[in-house]
Amino acid sequence: MELDPRRMQDWQIAEAAEEQMKPIGRLAAELGLRDDELVPYGAKLAKVHYAKALERLDGAPRAKYIDVTAITPTPLGEGKTTTTLGLIQGLGVLGKRVCGAIRQPSGGPTFNIKGSAAGGGLAQCIPLTPLSIRFTGDIDCVTNAHNLAMVAMTARMQHERNYDDARLAQSHLRRLDIDPDRVQIGWAMDFCAQSLRSIRIGRGGKMDGFEMDSGFQMSVASEVMAILSVATDLRDLRERIAHMVVAYDRQGNEVTTGDLDVDGAMTAWLVDAINPNLVQTLEGQPVFVHAGPFANIAIGQSSIIADRLGTRLGEYHITESGFGADIGFEKFWNLKCRMSGLSPDAVVLVATIRALKMHGGGPAVKAGVPLADEYVTENLGLVEAGCENLLAHIDIVRKSGVRPIVCINSFHTDAQAEIDLVRRIAEAAGARAVCSEHWLKGGQGALELAEAVIETCNEPSHFQFLYDLTMPLRQRIELIAKEVYGAKGVTYTDEALAKAKRLEAESYGTRLGTCMAKTQLSLSHDPELKGRPTDWVLPINDILVYKGAGFVVPVAGSIRLMPGTGSNPAFRRIDVDVETGKVRGLF
Amino acid sequence: MELDPRRMQDWQIAEAAEEQMKPIGRLAAELGLRDDELVPYGAKLAKVHYAKALERLDGAPRAKYIDVTAITPTPLGEGKTTTTLGLIQGLGVLGKRVCGAIRQPSGGPTFNIKGSAAGGGLAQCIPLTPLSIRFTGDIDCVTNAHNLAMVAMTARMQHERNYDDARLAQSHLRRLDIDPDRVQIGWAMDFCAQSLRSIRIGRGGKMDGFEMDSGFQMSVASEVMAILSVATDLRDLRERIAHMVVAYDRQGNEVTTGDLDVDGAMTAWLVDAINPNLVQTLEGQPVFVHAGPFANIAIGQSSIIADRLGTRLGEYHITESGFGADIGFEKFWNLKCRMSGLSPDAVVLVATIRALKMHGGGPAVKAGVPLADEYVTENLGLVEAGCENLLAHIDIVRKSGVRPIVCINSFHTDAQAEIDLVRRIAEAAGARAVCSEHWLKGGQGALELAEAVIETCNEPSHFQFLYDLTMPLRQRIELIAKEVYGAKGVTYTDEALAKAKRLEAESYGTRLGTCMAKTQLSLSHDPELKGRPTDWVLPINDILVYKGAGFVVPVAGSIRLMPGTGSNPAFRRIDVDVETGKVRGLF
What we know:
Two copies of one chain form a homodimer.
Chain A: H1 10-18, H2 24-31, E1 38-41, E2 45-48, H3 50-57, E3 64-70, H4 80-93, E4 98-102, H5 107-111, E5 119-120, E6 123-126, H6 128-132, H7 138-162, H8 165-170, E7 178-183, E8 187-189, E9 199-201, E10 212-214, E11 216-218, H9 223-230, H10 234-242, E12 245-249, E13 254-256, H11 263-268, E14 277-281, E15 286-289, H12 304-313, E16 316-320, H13 325-340, E17 346-351, H14 353-359, H15 380-399, E18 404-409, H16 416-428, E19 432-436, H17 438-441, H18 447-458, H19 473-485, E20 489-492, H20 494-505, H21 508-511, E21 513-514, E22 537-546, E23 551-556, E24 575-576, E25 583-584
Parallel strand pairs in A: 3-16, 3-17, 4-15, 4-16, 8-11, 17-18, 18-19, 20-22, 21-23
Antiparallel strand pairs in A: 1-2, 2-14, 5-6, 6-14, 7-12, 9-10, 12-13, 14-15, 22-23, 24-25
Helix pairs in contact in A: 3-12, 4-18, 7-9, 14-15, 15-16
């Protein structure tokens, strides 16, 4: 059966390819894993005992390490995961031992408008259905661990209100005296449930909870998910979980999951989730899918543990950072690499002609709405103007000391003249530039990209952090704002300023990393500003403390932690063939 | 290592036993399953492709089928699951090919006060940790399928409020016009989260959902869980899901998941969950753990599919019904057996001296509080008085045409004279009676029980339903109230009466089963009335329609679908050994 992405939907390609996929045991053995390091989940997926494998592989040569990032995306995404998988497949065609790591797709987008996030066309991860639904249950475990903390906190608030100290002492409880106006976390659910964004809980009598304002966020925005992505081992994860700040007491002191005696039980939900999940590309290369934190509020990277494993197993290990280089790559560069001790040998910067046209002044691109004419016919003016955005991202990557490889993720509507123009502009700015047709042709379409990556990896890398951890918080924020985003300055709300000063005084600012929260739809904080915005100031509205995950989060503009489900969501087209049990309609 | 339940906690026994447990492949092969019918989840658990296995086993001899039920329990439970597992182990000691089926424990009790529900002492299911946490993810899949329906409904209500018909038509939506005052379902979470029992959702602007009252229930109280337990195959499950009534429109018509176009996607969450999970007893007999519906509001039985499989694989298949015989067995008898086509060859009625003393007038038994003296020293007066409750349950089972086997689930504090008294009273009432020490001694302690079961299975059974489906709804309710619960009559609220009349007119009452919702803590609707209450009337406050699951639910008294977390819950004592990854503190 010939697989033609122009005539087939992603799930149809995946379903056909799954007929011939490698048994998981063979895939793992080819990657160099031993039987006792594998926990199979049926014949198509497995978890890998990271601790066993890493202990055995201690001292093994380190693979070349490649990060894939992108320009400022349209709401449709620029095919970053597709390019990651295409590159893995291309290196596979060239006979390289290659391994990859991507984030687990969230149920929110999968059932809403954007669809799953397992690549597309002939550059996909399979099996598609478990990747999109259920998988090995990691996101559910994160959801449950998170909600257990909320159960513990709200029940404790109720009991402390209802009982005096003597009665609390019978249950060996000391009064935590949580300030209901300073609760720091809400509940988690992995769907786009806008109706749960802002809720009032605990209504009813004195045994019906503690009445207060609350809300749900996407599970992938949970600090627990961020912890899963940055933990280096189970001990580290256990400690991070215990340090999650859930609220402040009436005296202003932190209240943690440890104070609620719920940190051990939360960790119990994560003892399997910490093991990376192994799947494969359409062409049979191994890919870890592990952790899926949001990139706008959390770190937005696949797990450190998966990269630790992947860089010990192959010659090349490809990882992916969420959203554009201003967000995803900046956090990869200054947070993830600092925490993991790994540094990249090459960085791929994905661009599409469609997104460049949007940045050049094309009409708004909206999920679920057909593209305007400008996007499907040649328009060199829009492309050239839009390259300003590409140049900004090239500059960002170059500041890390790595020469970026611009990869034009080709669509069949792109004109050759448009592609040539982008290559010329990117090369003039000091980047390598390639065009890649992995969506249409799989690994064979990504050979130019794969060769550029190999070349770059053979050159010396001068990777260095943007800032040192001794730099005070506000100075760091200003540096990121100016050097990465291109702002001319930073302003703070009174509340954010007070928090910044307190964090600096408490020396948090130098012990924890800085994880900026900003829209992915612009280099600035304003999603409407496309291209390369100039003459603007970054407003910091709040500063959150993710003490467990290990960073403070300065919030620029407004960040939504619970997206909404649209009026024509993907779930309407998903169904099951009751004869075969196969799921249809995923994309 | 000698395993002594008097000196070890359940998780310590389980952990020791897991060192020597059978690999899942061998367990399955001994049960008669083929490799390609198994989906291993690591080396200790597997799902079974029910469809493949049942197709191959079509025509195989049917095993003897045994249901385990109990007297009216204390809040601590009477060891029904422990006895089920003890009986399986006892039959194993006698060399019988035996298989069992129990419900999956809910995260609510596991992390709250009651603990896990995988047996206890030397009669347990292993591996304990996955049984208590995560498992194969079935409950999470039920939660997600359920909440996806809520996302679909609340988003639809928002869009219909915000957009006119022309705009809705662009998304191919017709106006459903859901009446916000007649929404039938809430959200699901598998914890005891009393703060989410009664909430106000959709607060904020017009894009923040639809503002209305709502609430969460335990996932195990969800109709989706009930459907998982009664579905006979995937096609049947798909159809049942589509018929779930989520609300009524302003004209009074039903609005279903099918109307929301979410039934297919909900089913996609359940394509793996429909396959039963295979684990083992401490002594290596196979046990299916599948579905976990509440017994007070839903059907409270392990799945029909697990029983279909188990009765084709062994000589004896043991299944379990939730709560006392008035609830669990009555639903097994008149709902599950009618839907499955199976009928029991024997019924075991579990009693404890502790519960009989409570029914005889002993002080209240409360979870988390030490037992009063009456419960740990000989007190024949309390036991004899409490046997009134046992006699009521014997009568219930006898009405099904099966002679019950009363099993005294022995505790080390029981006096021999107390046990002898119960045996005499049970035998005088026409039951078999045995005392069983499986908690202390495992299968060796349950030989008398196993032999009584074998004897009973060799006698002819005269199993018959209490009522015919042609019997009108109110007549059926009255029959159950009088014949099973011992009420002298039934009253209805105006609302319930109107619903009953409408259901009878729509002939729902004769197409759907009747699944009573009543407290498990009394034969009556009042949890305070112990023993065998007389001279009381059953009040029906509401009648719910679970059209997908296939029954109407007359609600007697008040039923709580979201329990509360206590002040000294189990999660405080659960932790992880970060060196080994083992979970500690489960019970």
